[in-house]
Amino acid sequence: MTFVSILSIFVLACFVGYYVVWSVTPALHTPLMAVTNAISSVIIVGALVASAAAGVPGAKWLGLTAVVLASVNIFGGFAVTERMLAMYKKKER
């Protein structure tokens, strides 16, 4: 695949992701965050596999960057999900 085709797929994925996430109702936000965390974990596995098999030294750094950014996304997603679930718990008197 050429760079232009890969870039166009990336840009289209960004547009689709933006419209999908911002059109979700608040009631579905927590399940969507759980799915996003699962997708990010797959990204981490893919980045580890791709950086281990890469023959170019720069690819290892890009793989490390992908792992770090996906890890931040996962932990942030869990924090947001925990905070949203805490809003629905009954308060103790």
Automatic annotation (TrEMBL):
Keywords, alphabetical: Cell inner membrane, Cell membrane, Membrane, NAD, NADP, Translocase, Transmembrane, Transmembrane helix
Top-level taxon: Bacteria
Gene Ontology MF annotations: NADP binding; proton-translocating NAD(P)+ transhydrogenase activity
Gene Ontology terms describing biological process: NADPH regeneration
Location(s), subcellular: Cell inner membrane
Regions that span the bilayer: 6-25, 32-55, 61-81
Top EC category: translocase
Membrane topology: Multi-pass membrane protein
The protein's role, per its UniProt record: The transhydrogenation between NADH and NADP is coupled to respiration and ATP hydrolysis and functions as a proton pump across the membrane.
Pfam families: PNTB_4TM (PF12769)
A single cellular component GO annotation: plasma membrane
Domain called NAD(P) transhydrogenase alpha subunit C-terminal: residue spans: 7-90
Catalyzed reactions: NAD(+) + NADPH + H(+)(in) = NADH + NADP(+) + H(+)(out)
Listed EC numbers: 7.1.1.1
Protein name listed in UniProt: proton-translocating NAD(P)(+) transhydrogenase
